[in-house]
Every structure is written in structure tokens, then in C-alpha cells.
What we know:
The chain is of the alpha+beta class. The chain contains 3 helices and 7 strands, in the order H-E-E-E-H-H-E-E-E-E. The protein has a single domain (4-158), classed as CheC-like (Chemotaxis protein chec), CATH 3.40.1550. Helices cover 34% and strands 32% of the residues.
Amino acid sequence: MDDINGLDLNFFVTTAIAEVFETMLSIDLKEIDKDCQVKMEGNTITGTVSFAGKIMGSFNFISTDKCARMLTVAMLGMEENEIEGQEEINDVIGELSNMVGGDIKSRFCDSGFETQLSIPSITSGTDYKIQIRDFVRKERYIFEHKEHKIIVEIFIKPGS
């Protein structure tokens, strides 16, 4: 396959998210309508990994602070009051971004698009925007678990 437009990003992303969340967190996420207008209130945390190679782009994992705390508790097998600080939460969001991004990278490679994955970066705050430039495809997915929503974005373009 030599056209990135032929890649089934929906399958890549939804499968990666489902496998990581079931395996690492014992959480079943439900995908909701991607046209749904979700506004993240309060502090949000974004884990980002970038792709470089025959496909270039990035993957963003966006959650509220409250959701990130719930994910930290689930991943580390602890109670919420045992979280020692923001660094633990950032580490979990970074690791989740890395695992999901790694799964997607493997699917790119299996489809003939060799690529490398960056280490995850974390951005957090109440009013920020992450801009990706010159992408050919952008997909946005929304998942929920109980009252928590997670937004997943993937941006890709042909690489070298």
C-alpha cells in the first residue's frame, strides 16, 4: 500500500485504544460519535507522540485532569489519595500515549510504512492548543468510560 489515504486509521486507533485499555487498565472504553462536540472543562492533559519515516505526523491523547487521575489509579493499582503528585499522572498519560502510539506505529509498519516513534511529551493546562501543520489526514475519536471522556487525534502526511 503506497497511499496513506488507504490506511484504515479508524481500525488502527480504535483497536490500539481498546487493547491497551483492556490489558493495562481493565477498562472498556466506548467510542462515541466523533462529530459530538466535547469541551474539556478545567485542566487538561495531552500526551503526544510523533511519527517519522515513510509516514510523518503525531498522535494526541487528551483527557481532563480528573480522568487522568482515574487512569493513574487504574494503571498503578492504587487509591486516588495515594497519588503523590502531578508527575505520576503525567507518567501514566505519557506511557498510555506511548503504548497506543507504538501499536499504531506497528500497524503502519505492517502496512509498508516504516516509521519511528518519538518519546512522549506532555502538555497540560487550562487554555492551550496543539497545532500540527501540513498534515494530509486528520482523524479525531472520542471515547468514554463512565462520566470520563478521552479525545484521540491522529495527524499524518507522507514522509521520506
